[in-house]
Sequence to fold (137 residues):
Amino acid sequence: MDCYKYLNIHLSDYVKNFEKRTKRVDLFVVDNGQFYVTYKKLHNEAIFSVREAKKIEGIDKTKSLKKYEDAYNQYTELYDHINSKISDINWAKRKYCVKFGLKALLWIASVILSSLITISVGCPKLQSIVEGVIACF
Fold:
C-alpha cells in the first residue's frame, strides 16, 4: 500500500508542476478543448480516489489498497494524456508568449506615442518635429 501512496505522491507532484508551468497558458487551444476537459476529468477522479482511500484506510485495508491502485491508474492515465499532447502544449505556451510580447510592445508604443503628443502640446517648437514623427506612423 505504501508503494502506491508514494507513486501517487510522485505523479501528483508531476501534475502540480505541469499546472505551475502552464498557469497562464490557455489549454483550451490544445485539441479543440478536448485535452483540458479530459485532463480535468482524470485529475479530479485521481484526487477523489486518493481521498476515498485515505478515508477508509483505517477501516478496511483491502478496499483502501484498491482505491490507491485506482488512483495510481488514473494518475498514470493522466501522465500519459499530458505526454501524448506535449508538443501541442508547447505550441500553446509559445502562442501565449507571443501574445504577451505583442501586448507589451503595443503598450510601450502607446506610452511613447502619448509622450510625444504631450510634448508637442507643451512645447510649440517641438510640435513640428513631433508632427513629422507621427506622420511616419
Observations:
- The chain is about 85% helix and 0% strand.
- The longest helix spans residues 86-122.
